[in-house]
Amino acid sequence: MTSPRVLPRTLVVRLDSAGDVLLAGPAVRAAADGSSYTALLCGPQGAQAGRLLPGVDEVLTYDAPWVGLEPAPVSRAKTCQLLDTLSARRFDRALVLVSYHQSPLPIALLLKLAGVGWTAADSEDYPGSLLDLRHRRLPHRHEALAALDLARDAGFALPPGDDGALRIEAPPDTTHLTGPEPYVVLHPGAAVPARAWSPARAARAAAALAAEGYRVVITGGRAERNLTAKVAGQYALDLGGATDLRQLAGVLAGARVAVTGNTGPAHLAAAVGTPVVSLFAPVVPAERWAPYGVPHVLLGDQDAPCAQSRARHCPLPGHPCLDGIGDAEVLAAVAALDEDRAEPDAEPPREGGGSETERGATV
Predict the structure, then answer these.
(1) Is the pTM of this model over 0.90?
(2) Is there a smaller number of Cβ atoms within 10 Å at the N or the C end of the chain?
């Protein structure tokens, strides 16, 4: 008699922002389908998003000192605490998900010290014995697909019927916040200022949308309430600071279209199936970070001098790549996506294409 297959206990690591965690969602679902227990290790900025992902049994949080816009100081005590937490859970496997410009090796070392039996990651750097599967991502790969490639080559596959789109658990009904009438969301903020409109430009867009007949809802976090109030003015409903991430998902799910920069709410909108007008500054490549798996229109000068610079603050006077977008362009993009809203959803990009993989750690 054949013994039943014993599924591994798996840890998926994604240590940076909420948007990055949302893009990891399809890879997380693949890992969960092939695991008896799936935990997600996030940074503090991504933990809320991690709790929204299907397939996650537990979210662990670690503020890694090599990640983020304001990295935490190195702490022996917090590092030892992480090792104790991971050791107690006896993970068999780990997938370390990183962006194309990040190294997985610091956390891979800690995973080995915590007794994780097998670890896989994309790595351009020689990993020594830190990785059991050194994976090489395909060039120009979208972040969501790159993560799926790694999961697949680590032995995990999406369950039957899973189309690989971004997804979260069902968001709440937020009609009590938005009102019942149709609306468009304008999210003016971003953690990286170079990736958002200036406040004055966002306010003009809200006024233009309202003049065109759209009911406009402005969203933002608690720290962005001054921004959202300025942008909303007399033209829009200001929900700045009124939602946590799960409630924001509900607001976005109810929207006809979302207008936002390259920031977490763009990926949250995609995860609830809402079309996105993407105000995309070229400081990072759109081919890797554009809204995934939903209809979207990309606006912004992708050939601006700041392209691929990863600048956090626009180095050019007047923020021309985004503030140079005209109201007519915005209105046309919203109208096109709103018109298509009644059409069948566009299929997400396919997984295929393979990947270059190196088994073990030798080079």
Answers:
(1) yes
(2) N
**Residue 298, amino acid:** L
Q: Compute the chain's Rg from CA coordinates.
A: 21
Residue type, 290: A
Q: Mind listing the pLDDT tens digit for each residue in 303-333? A: 998 888 888 888 888 889 999 999 999 999 9
Residues 6+ apart with CB under 8 A from 182: 215, 256
Q: How many whole angstroms from its chain centre is CA 112?
A: 27
CB 249 within 8 A of CB 52: yes
The rounded distance, in Å, linking the Cα atoms of 20 and 15 is 8
CA-CA distances (angstroms) from residue 349 to 1, 22, 79, 142, 189?
42, 16, 38, 9, 27
Between β-strands 9-14 and 93-96, what pairing exists: parallel, antiparallel or unpaired? parallel
Residues 53, 124, 24, CA angle at the centre, nearest 5°?
Answer: 5
What are the backbone dihedrals phi and psi of residue 256, each rounded to the nearest 5 degrees, phi first? -70, -40
pLDDT tens, residue by residue, 52-96: 999 999 999 999 999 988 899 999 999 999 999 999 999 999 999
Please answer whether residues 319 and 113 qualify as being in contact, where contact means their C-beta atoms are separated by less than 8 angstroms. Answer: no
Three-state SS at 176: helix
Nearest residue to 119 (alpha-carbon basis) of 355, 356, 354, 359: 359
Please choose, from the candidates 62, 57, 149, 136, the residue with its C-alpha nearest in 3D space to the C-alpha of residue 100: 136
Q: Say what the alpha-carbon torsion angle 236, 241, 245, 247 is, to the nearest 10 degrees.
A: -60
